[in-house]
Amino acid sequence: MAEDGLPSPQRLARAASLMAVATVASRALGLLREVVAAWLFGATNAKAAYVIAYYLPFFVQRLLLGGTLSIVFIPTISRYLAHNDLAEARRLSGSLFTLVLLAGVAMVTLGFVVAPLLVPVAAPGFAASPELLELAVQLTRIIFPAMLFLALSVFVTGFLQAHHDFTASALAPLLFNITIITGTLLLGPRIGIRGLAFAWIAGTAAQFLVQLPAARRYGLRMGPIDLAHPAVRELARLAVPAMLGLAIVEINAYVDRFFASMLLAQPTANPVAVLDYAYEIVQAPVGIFAISIATAVFPLLSRHAATDSRDDLRGTSSLALRTLLAVILPVTALALALREPLVRLIFQRGEFGPLATHAVAATLAGYAVGLPAIAAYYVVTRTYYALQDMATPVRIGVTMVIANAVLDYLLMQIWGVVGIALATSIVSAANVVLLLWHLRRRLGRVDGRRIASTSLRTGTAAVAAGLLMAAVAEVVRPVGLAGQSVQVGGAALAGALAYVGMCRLLSVEELRVALELLRRPVPTSQG
Question: Pathway of this protein (predicted)?
């Protein structure tokens, strides 16, 4: 720790490295979780009912509790810690911890009661099948309690990250996924899709409980709710626009599934389930790179904003975005060039057949073209949140919600579920461009030329790598799981070597930064 109370650059680098490695492992386990679900339930109507059931309480939790509090809580608690006011930081944290717990219990109770009213609104297409509608209602009621544990977990994660302790919060998702995988394998064959829902409760509880001892070491305790506390009042003021900002992201996901439920469903390729599988593949690199970078850099951005260090804020934000682009663009090329072989390798077994593979692969292409923008959103918005400017992303986002709904409706008439994914990509790109433009007005500059230069050079290298990957995949014909692995692995390796070579020729320094970050040793203990 530096003398001024700020974390040293070495500690920040170790934190980012730890987050990256743990996130890679978590995303790998998350993908395995989806593989298990695909094997047992495929892209059937039952899986579609689960998707709708999951999104309803997750939307409420993100909107009212976990996501909103974590975004507004970290900058606020960071100010107290920066001034070494530990007693006040603990008092505020205890008050909010109790508030989250009570609000979560109320949320679960209300969700159980109103589930029959929520599901028909979320998935109007399910009305054509009373059995499917009833299953979605049952699953929603089962999953709602998991959102209490998830809200508590997100709050504790924010508390630990404000103290620059990333160890427990990085490892918690690993236990979360392991618990869900184990629960699904044990319960799925016995009670069907409901087993996956019950496994979610166990997973979220484990994710919260594993972080609690570390949080208690930093003094987190339940405390009396003090609504008159100045910081609580400030948080309440900031929470409303932050809530709206998160609502925009979640509403877009909800709108996509709303329209997907209206499309003609095939027994083994329900559009809602197809959209969800493709989205999960896209979210893997987003979590590995975008969220880990944004999470690790957010406390530093918050401290720069709190001390009005605009140059440092701009520099940190720009470097994070350019580094992200250097690693996300080749992943985009891979997702486009190897979409069907990739989906076949990951999912096609058990109840997940060739028809589902083709549908998910086509939908993946629609999402993949917008992957750089989807990933960049997480870094760009963290700069706004560090500045405690929640209003600008909301104003832009409201327009994007409307645009997304219109494009969903129009493009699904032409390309079905693929059109819905493509609409998300178009809207995501427009959203990030507008956010950067407004951020430039706020900060004076955002290193736009350097960002554009990095995008052009890495984009050129990614296109070359993608063409090579597609060519290699055509030459290598898969026979069985081993053959599929050789096809995808060989093509990906060839593309990676080509991309790194092109980046060296084009002097892409950001790739070197990313590779050095990934090569840093990860500490086994805090400090």
Answer: Cell wall biogenesis; peptidoglycan biosynthesis
Residues 190 and 286 both lie in one domain: no
Residues 203 and 160 in one domain: yes
Q: How many residues does the chain have?
A: 527
Same-domain status, 152 and 295: no
Q: Quote the CA–CA distance of 172 and 174 in Å, as a whole number.
A: 5
**Which residues, 6+ apart, have CB-to-CB distance to 290 below 8 Å?**
324, 328, 374, 375, 376, 377, 378, 379
pLDDT digits (tens, 9 = 90+) for 141-170: 999 999 889 889 888 988 888 887 888 888
- In sign, the C-alpha dihedral spanning 109, 110, 112, 113 is positive
Residues 6+ apart with CB under 8 A from 113: none
Question: Structural domain of residue 436, as residue ranges?
Answer: 1-11+255-527
Residue 487 contacts residue 445 (beta carbons within 8 Å): no
What would the mean pLDDT of 267-278 be, rounded to a whole number? 94
Residue 461 CA to residue 344 CA, distance in Å, equals 26
| Same structural domain, 6 and 148 | no
For position 527, what pLDDT does the model report?
34
469 and 495 in contact (C-beta within 8 Å)?
A: yes
Q: What three-state secondary structure class fits 269?
A: strand
Decide if 22 is inside a domain.
no
Whether residues 215 and 267 share a domain: the answer is no
Q: Which residues of 251-280 are buried (b: 16+ CB within 10 A; e: fewer)?
A: bbbbbbbbbbbbbebeebbbbbbbbbbbbb
184 and 323 part of one domain: no
- The token duo for 326 is 């250097």
Mutual angle of helices 292-306 and 371-386, in 10-degree steps: 30
Does residue 414 lie within any of the structural domains? yes
Task: Tell me, yes or no, whether 288 and 165 share the same domain.
Answer: no
Number of domains in the chain: 2
Biggest alpha carbon–alpha carbon distance for the chain: 68
pTM: 0.85
Give the ranges where 65-129 is alpha helix by DSSP (H): 66-82, 86-122
What residue type is assigned to position 266 of the chain? Q
The amino acid occupying position 279 is: Y
Contact call for residues 367 and 334 (beta carbons, < 8 A): no
Residue corresponding to tokens 């509880």: 205
Q: How far is CA 388 from CA 41, 170, 448, in A?
A: 43, 25, 22
